[in-house]
Predict the 3D structure of the following.
Amino acid sequence: MKLKKIIKGNIDFFRLLQEQSEYIVQSAEALAAYTQTLKPDYARKVEALEKQADAKRAELIRELNKTFITPFDREDIFMLSKCLDDVLDYFKTTVLEMEIYKIDYAPELVKFMDVLKTASDDINQSVRNMHHSPATAMQYAVKAKKCENQVEFLYRSSVASLLENDDIKYIIKMRELYRHLSNCADRIDQAADAICHILMKEIS
């Protein structure tokens, strides 16, 4: 079923999804800045963006319940919104973990965020193109999926480097943070899969 048949009424669900994805880009940029500078202002910005995105998702769900007709397609849009929300949640909890563990500047975290920031841009571009250029949206979604393998490589190499350290507490807390960022990459991959699932109906 074509996307234009999925969305009914006067509510622009593409716009609502796009606004959610734009929060991901802004949050990734703020988190990347936080890992580089450790300035609290960036941490608070990540948290504020997550709350704003929650409000946008709540708006989408309210309109979804009123205007979607086909339950299957409604589930697709709901799941994509949830996947986008999950990414933002992971960015926020990354800040919380860094604060709880009292993480200082670590170049490995900057490398993780470089990949996650690029993938966030790709997800946003994919969502932006879903309505008018499904093929382009698919290309960006496939590109975003590459971040999972890139982050997995970073995770393994970073953990290997950690094991050369004699500080057991440092090893444990950094490994947990690396694992958390790896899980964030998984959420981005899931968001890309949700986009691809919807787009297959448009392109086929």
About this structure: The first helix runs from residue 3 to 6. The radius of gyration is 18 Å. The chain has one domain: 3-203.
